[in-house]
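As the work plan foresaw, our protein records have gained a structure token line. A representative record is set out beneath this paragraph:
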Amino acid sequence: MTDKDMIEIWTDGACSGNPGPGGWGALIRWNGHEKELYGGDPATTNNRMEMTAVIEALNALNRPSKITLNVDSTYVKDGLTKWIKGWKRNGWKTADKKPVKNQELWMAMEEACKRHEITWVWVKGHAGDEGNERADGLARKGTDEVRGRK
């Protein structure tokens, strides 16, 4: 696999109130091309939108790929790279025996990741990373649309 086969993705979630109306956005770059994705939910949380952005971006790819996935959510990155094995081993319970929040999204995200080779990168949000800023703008667009603003 060459560098031109590499796909780079930035994802972000947004929520107006938490919970409240929210949106998700993703920027996908490959071989000189770009694709923007976004959507929203009228009643959600920021974490759910962060997770949805990753799921939607990965599910938009039509073949197994080598991906650099840039996220500004340590919740998403750590959840999939550190915590999920323990949650599954413990019957989807946290270390303090409480049910894992957003279990259905964790399961969907894990499934979406299976066919890809992913390098997870945490980027600081609102700090000038061009891809992250674009994903943030898309997430805000998704939020605005579910709130009835265009």
Q: What stands out?
A: The CA atoms of residues 18 and 45 lie 5 Å apart. Strands lie at 7-15, 20-30, 33-44, 66-71, 117-122. The two ends are 41 Å apart (CA to CA).
